Amino acid sequence: MNAIRNEQARVWLVGAGPGDPELLTVRAARLIAQAEVLLVDDLVDRRVLELASPEARVLAVGKRGGCVSTSQRFIHTLMIREARAGHRVVRLKGGDPFVFGRGGEEVDALRAEGIEVEVVPGITAGIAAPAAVGIPVTDRRCAPGVAFVTGHTQDGGAGADWSALAASRLTLVVYMGVAHAAAIAQALVEGGRAPDTPAAAISAAHTPQQRQVRATLATLASALAAHGVKSPAILVIGEVAALGADTLAAVAAGAPTPTLAAPARGVA
Ligand code: SAH
């Protein structure tokens, strides 16, 4: 039973990470287990929800592009109502709540109603997906930094400035980019990136459905189509996208996967 009451109307905005529950923060796992009401995006892995109490109410409020989805306004109303009713409300989002997650809008809506919000960061897909296939996004031998960019331009929203990004030497990590990969690659080449710049796509990272495709800017879109890569996927563009492939090939060929030994208790 969750005996703790939510006396002062508060919502916990929690990052659920990319998939595997082992990648949750300790705080996220604890809050999920203690929640009375969970409002969950559809990118949140089912295995994460197994940590919730059997008595908790789990409400799916997904917003996947092109699917029937709950309006943002309704999600705000629901959070406000449940928090005011004194319930421990956890708003659970894939990855990190503040990285392409509308977390900022939700914080504003809740605070405007006098509801406290605590944000618990999560591991964002833009970090987790490249890492899953051995790509170090800021390897200093290749890139001075990394830019997280959306590949999805909403009506009226500001799209990325691809020619400026092309001119930078930054690794580009593109969220929501699968459907627009051809246009993105073309814009980057027109902006001056070499057509043979390495590119990679990682879909459903840290889930049993994880897949990766390695290509170049010139071949990215056709490689995605040929391999049937679907959302959710992260695109990585830049020299770093050629790294890590050997490690993964070794694992695929049956190299033993290292397991973590339980740490010895006490201080050595
Ligand atoms: N807040 C989330 C991002 C939400 S936007 C985060 O921080 O990760 C949704 C996009 O995130 C997807 O279209 C995809 O580009 C990416 N994404 C989320 N989970 C992913 C996963 N497990 N593997 C690959 N990409 C993922």
Automatic annotation (TrEMBL):
Print the keywords alphabetically: Cobalamin biosynthesis, Methyltransferase, Porphyrin biosynthesis, S-adenosyl-L-methionine, Transferase
Source organism lineage? Answer: Bacteria, Pseudomonadati, Pseudomonadota, Betaproteobacteria, Burkholderiales
Biological process per Gene Ontology, one example term: cobalamin biosynthetic process
Q: In which pathway does it act?
A: Cofactor biosynthesis; adenosylcobalamin biosynthesis; precorrin-2 from uroporphyrinogen III: step 1/1; Porphyrin-containing compound metabolism; siroheme biosynthesis; precorrin-2 from uroporphyrinogen III: step 1/1
Q: What is this protein called?
A: uroporphyrinogen-III C-methyltransferase
One Pfam family, short name: TP_methylase
- For this protein, the Enzyme Commission number is 2.1.1.107
| Residues covered by the Tetrapyrrole methylase domain | 10-221
Q: Which GO MF terms does the UniProt record name?
A: uroporphyrin-III C-methyltransferase activity
This protein's record includes keyword rRNA processing: no
Query: PANTHER family per the record?
Result: S-ADENOSYL-L-METHIONINE-DEPENDENT UROPORPHYRINOGEN III METHYLTRANSFERASE, CHLOROPLASTIC, SIROHEME SYNTHASE-RELATED
The similarity comment for this entry is:
Belongs to the precorrin methyltransferase family.
Q: Which CDD domains match?
A: SUMT (cd11642)
Q: What class of enzyme is it?
A: transferase
InterPro entries of this UniProt entry?
A: 4pyrrol_Mease (IPR000878), 4pyrrol_Methylase_sf (IPR035996), 4pyrrole_Mease_sub1 (IPR014777), 4pyrrole_Mease_sub2 (IPR014776), CobA/CysG_C (IPR006366), Siro_Cobalamin_biosynth (IPR050161), Uropor_MeTrfase_CS (IPR003043)
